[in-house]
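User: Hey, quick favor. My workstation is busy. Could you predict this chain's structure for me?
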Amino acid sequence: LANLIRDTAHAVVEALGLEQQDALVEGLATRWQRGTLVMQPADSSLQPKEVPLETFFHKIVMIRNNLRVLEQKVNASDKLSDADKFDLQQYITRCYGSLTTFNILFKNKDDQFRTSA
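Assistant: No problem, here it is.
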C-alpha cells in the first residue's frame, strides 16, 4: 500500500508539472546559484534578513505554478460567465506582469513570466 501511495503521488506531481527541488536549482540561472537575497531595513539598528536564492526562487516558481493552475481552472470553469473569465484572466495577467521583475533569476527564457501567450 505504501508503494502504491508513493507511486501515485509521484505520478500526480509529474502529471501536474510540479517542480522538484533539483529541477528548481537547475532552473535558477548559474550566476545566482548559492547566492543570497539580503533584505536590509532602513533602520541600521535592525538586523537584515538573508534568504538563500534557491529558497526564494522556489517560492517564485511555486507562485508561477499556482497561477498556471488557477488560469487553467478559470478557463475550464463552466460556472463562470465569459465576462467573469475575462476579468479573472486580466487579474492573472497583471500578476504575471508584476512577477516579470524576477525573470533575471531564470536560466531558460521559456520558464520566465510573460504577460502574453
